[in-house]
Inverse folding.
């Protein structure tokens, strides 16, 4: 199951169950045929703007915080500004380096995966470096321009 289908299922689960822990969420995903790690679910929770809320009895559970696209884009721009050290375009890909040993590459790659940027087909992330993959060299250059526009001066 790809990440978009997994995240759609995750939203269905939290909208139909009062899930209070990631462990409970992992078990419900598994009951629906999806095996995922805690780290993957944690990234999904962040990418989907899922937060813990309290009911009238003080019991907490996960719910999606709805944000508008302008806020979502600003979060992406802020993340680029705060964490991207460099961006190098290689044909239809961008190699993006984030703050060393920050593990932020996976978070930023997830934000780009979930964005409405049609120039990105997918991402591949490591600890502090990730790659964006585009269909064309021109699309990769457009992503490079976006990243460079929002990077802090180094």
């Amino acid at each position: 199951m790809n990440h978009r289908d997994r995240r759609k299922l995750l939203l269905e689960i939290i909208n139909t169950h009062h899930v209070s822990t990631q462990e409970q969420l992992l078990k419900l995903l598994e009951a629906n045929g999806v095996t995922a790690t805690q780290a993957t679910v944690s990234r999904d929770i962040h990418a989907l703007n899922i937060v813990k809320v309290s009911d009238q009895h003080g019991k907490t559970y996960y719910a999606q915080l709805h944000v508008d696209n302008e806020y979502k884009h600003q979060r992406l721009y802020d993340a680029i500004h705060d964490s991207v050290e460099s961006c190098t375009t290689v044909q239809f890909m961008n190699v993006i380096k984030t703050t060393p040993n920050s593990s932020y590459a996976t978070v930023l790659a997830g934000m780009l995966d979930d964005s409405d940027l049609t120039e990105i087909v997918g991402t591949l992330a490591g600890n502090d470096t990730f790659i964006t993959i585009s269909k064309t060299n021109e699309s990769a250059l457009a992503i490079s321009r976006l990243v460079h526009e929002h990077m802090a001066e180094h």
User: Anything to note?
Assistant: The mean pLDDT is 89.
